[in-house]
Amino acid sequence: MSSRDRILGRVRRALADVPDGELPYEESVARAYAREHGERTTEQTVDLLAENLADYRAIVHRCAAADLPELLTRLLARRGARTVLVPPGLPPHWLAAADPVRVHDRAASTPHELDEVDSVVTGCAVAVAETGTIVLDGSPDQGRRRITLVPDHHVCVVRVPDQVVSCVPGALERLDPARPLTWISGPSATSDIELDRVEGVHGPRTLEVVLVSGE
């Protein structure tokens, strides 16, 4: 008997005394709780996202689509980036004016090789205003999960207002749970018992978020 058979057998025994007419779990649990806090316009929702991102110590930039290549070039130059990791589906014009050497997202890349990359630029799947959270789902403009966890500098482009939602339930409705989801609320950080904050432990030390309109 396999482990699967044992687990399913326990489930069947646990459900043996459940009446046939009883409502299934998803119907028996009330779902009338608030989905979001208050009412906001689209502009207010984007402003709240920017505010909460900054509160998490992410560096927030805003620009129009036409100015995005210039802004990304400036951010990479300010960082002194010599190499930039590029997901396969990143729009080519985003980095058309940038000088750093492009590093491709390859399955064969080792953690040591990724650690030597100066910056990574990605898109995102969705951004949650109420929590200041960026969600990546491994789509072509975001690449493999590890490319945003190992390099020390991550620039994430969020298309507004299309990719911005007010609340976590709104984000979940847009996401495929079968995809590799990464939820990012500010740069990676932790603290010890004395509350000394250390950044860059489980991901990049610096997270820059570009809110681009009209893309």
From TrEMBL:
Q: Which residues form the LUD domain?
A: 50-212
Q: Which InterPro entries match?
A: FTHF_cligase-like_sf, LUD_dom, NagB/RpiA_transferase-like
The lineage is: Bacteria, Bacillati, Actinomycetota, Actinomycetes, Kitasatosporales
- What protein name does the entry list? LUD domain-containing protein
